[in-house]
Prior knowledge:
It is globular, with a radius of gyration of 22 Å. The protein is α/β, with parallel strands linked by helices. α2 crosses α11, α3 packs antiparallel against α10 and α4 (79-91) crosses α5 (108-130). β10 and β11 (309-315) form a beta hairpin. The chain is built from twelve helices and eleven strands. Strands 7-6-5-8-9-11-10 form a seven-stranded mixed beta sheet, sandwiched between helices. A two-stranded antiparallel ribbon has the order 1-2. The chain has helices spanning 2-11, 50-64, 68-76, 79-91, 108-130, 137-147, 164-176, 215-225, 243-255, 257-265, 268-280, 284-293; strands at residues 14-23, 26-35, 40-43, 46-49, 98-102, 156-161, 183-187, 200-206, 226-237, 297-304, 309-315.
Amino acid sequence: MAAPMRAISRCCQVVSLWKWNNNAGGMIRRYIQTEASGKETHFGFQTVPEEEKGEKVYQVFESVAQKYDIMNDSMSLGVHRLWKDYLVKLMNPTPGTQLLDVAGGTGDVAFRFIDYIRAQKEKLIRQKLKSQQTLPWSEISRTYQQNGLGDLSGSQAVICDINKEMLKVGKQKALKLSYSDGLSWVAGDAEELPFVDEKFDVYTIAFGIRNVTHIEQALREAYRVLKPGGRFLCLEFSQVNNPLLARLYDLYSFQVIPVLGEVIAGDWKSYQYLVESIRRFPPQDEFKDMIEDAGFFKVNYHNLTSGVVAIHSGFKL
Length: 317
């Protein structure tokens, strides 16, 4: 009877989970007890209980947070910056846009959003003044002062990340780069966002959705918090569509990236997981179907760098 009893005990065990809960307008981490689901999922190429994946991913990003930006530049040879530029260009936000950037702890997408809004506003002011070329210099100067090029006309970027260490790094970077207006930092889980329904115009998630335990739930949450007409944009590693590049990419990913992780960040295992997690993420068309199943319309995707990454787009109609 000992072996059957151990099996029953294992199935019914109580496990410890960290979960995010809303408390007095902020997010706190609360220790709760919950029964094990018995379900399994992947953590890279490993199979683990669903209850363990969230904490394992949390530990990975807590470990790499301080070297995250340096490693992104090293791993992609700086190309990740162009991918993120293209994401915001595709978004094409206008003054007043409300953005939610999920898993955006270090602020890369949010900072680009702020820059884009400021450029759009300056363009509008210049167009207005160009149509009134008879204005004296004093009036032109007054127009610039009244509109304030630094003003974002109500635009706001909310950076939401489950990892406190990533948010800490993002805030430090914002201070260093002089980003202050129009930014909010919120600790929260992509599968249980701490926001009311229909709050945002745009939802972005860059290199984050492959790390959630239940992708379908994260997509449903994205749909919930978007306003009608709102847009979902996901930048994620995907399936390379060039056979030669695919072979070289695999060689680089498995032989070089973990070594870079060890040399630069002192963390081989975390970057081994990140490489493996890319291979476990659904290919472009399969992920497109998942986005449609969550309720989005007009779903399509753009391959960048021969499918090394893809940007999926959908609308809440």
